[in-house]
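Hi team,

Below is the intake form for DNA primase from Acidovorax delafieldii. Please confirm the fields before the structure is written into the shared record.

FORM ID: S-0412
PROTEIN: DNA primase
ORGANISM: Acidovorax delafieldii
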Amino acid sequence: MTIPQSFIQELLTRVDVVDIVGRYVQLKKGGANFMGLCPFHGEKSPSFSVSPAKQFYHCFGCGKNGNAISFLMDHAGMGFVEAVQDLAQSVGLQVPDDDISPQEKERAAAARQKQATLNEVLEKAADAYRRHLRESQRAIGYFKGRGVSGAVAKRYGLGYAPEGWRSLASVFPSYDDPLLEESGLVIVNDEDGGKRYDRFRDRVMFPIRNVKGEYIGFGGRVLGDDKPKYLNSPETPVFHKGRELYGLFEARTPIREAGYALVTEGYMDVVALAQLGFPNAVATLGTACTPEHVQKLLRFTDAVVFSFDGDSAGRRAARKALDGALPHATDTRSIKFLFLPAEHDPDSFIREHGTDAFARHVERATPLSRFLVEAASEGCDLATAEGRAHMASNARPLWTALPDGVLKRQLLGELAELTQLNARDLSDLWGQAAARDGVRAAHHAPPQRQQPRPTADDAPSWDAPPDADGWQPHTESAGPAYDPGYGSYSNPGGYGGQNGHSSQSGYGGGKPPFRKGGDWKSGGGWKKRDKDTPWPPQPRLPRTPAMSRADHAARLLLSHMAFLEELTHDDHTILAAQPGAHGPLFAWLEAQFHEHGPLAWAVLRESLRDHECEELAVKVMTGSHAQTEGELHELRLELRDLLTRMQIEDIKEQQKVLVLQVAQDPSALERYRALAEKRKELEQIAPKTT
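The structure came back. Fields below:
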């Protein structure tokens, strides 16, 4: 079967290579990476590095490297499809199971072309709506009445769909074009002989753009009291309201500057908040907030504040937003819920109480942890055993949805206290409930793989007490046999512990234990090693050619894509101007960042398949030089120094040209002096630059 490349990229964003490798290799934290004994060649000291940032592994001894898929193929002996299916099952994804024929590839290409065409059709309609707005005093009066300035209207591309059934007929030469219906601009009444008419009529228009700035749909609001008050584009090949957020394209930079995203309930809330000093606002598109919405926002910030009206409808919307946010509420993220008085929306509240008062409300918004407890306790009388039991039942799915971490464990203690149980008892009860749920789905589980046992008579006993050097062996289950010919632990029956799953605390997941002061015997057992005996030398990687500054900058940005948002305009300019394939590579990387947010190198590698920049990117990310790691602060300084030096070199080249032009162009001297001042400032930042 052929699996679409888009699915491979999505899969690699969902899995964690550290978890996958950790099924087979005992890993220990070492700086920014995890280190272990290489499973691909025999070695005595760890030279196998796994990078959480890059989602890549690399052995400094044998040079083996790759992503989560290649690891399962090379180490576990899985085929490509089997490895993809294994990873997809672990994160709840369904692998496309139909082969892609040449005809289907052509259809996929045609679909991509149609999406681009639909974007163009919608953009043409948006231009027309903006022109109509300038001609409609009534529509302009509506926006002025809401306090919207011309500048904000221009920023959000606001428009007006005039009265009349077929106003778009003057915009598009062929009103019968099927693309007008497919884009959601025109409705076809099949019951009236296929009569066509505009979907949006006599409404102020709010164009919806994706994060790339492409037009994907519209929201329209009536000027009077007609119903429906708001009308959205239907679902189309380019518009899926469960994945898109209104105003995100315009709010990307303000979100980063403010440090948080403000999620509201409507188009007008976003526009009004931007007018009143909160341009970091976005809105869902007439639907409840979904996990996809939250995930998209978290590409731009680690802090999200949901703003809702304080009435019952607002509380219900907040409850749905809580469900969408829980899977993404890690220890390093801040998710809050802001409830305004029932008589106010954000616009009216700010106009009555001012921006400072609203900012204080944002700061004092309810944290996700507190709102989770409130949601679980709603309708429960905690003064009675029945009420506390009901609350615990409500809390279980909410608490379970949280990613493991300090926040989740703290909440367990708080919820246990409210139920008048200790945390262990509550955890046990919830575990039993989860087991009962699992029994009902047991017939869907994959076939179990028999776990092999050690074959050597003198294999170590993992139930033994600590050895003389103080190493405590694993105790849960026996591990796979050691294969001296392979130089690692073989696992022919499966890669996990009992039931084919990895063991978190035992050796059953095929993890070789770290041992101190010993060595493996050729027969597969353990023998004591003289502590003064040196480790055997490890093979060296071939010497790699020296890297240029552009290569070095590319490596840092491909490894840590989030650094892009810290670059200045001059930085982007100097990178885009690099000769050869470097300039296009930096431009491509910035486009990927704007569309998808920071991605790991493993995902970027898949996106580069057959791309003109693939060879360069693979070159700079291959070899021992590409595995250099350090503290993020130090790497940022390293990149800053590189870019400063690149700018200095560029100025030097410009000055050489200007010296030759001075005789014919006196103004060249002034430009030379201006560049000299700028160069002096840069050289103070990088004093060692020559």
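SUMMARY LINE: Residues 180 and 641 are 52 Å apart (CA to CA).

Thanks, M.
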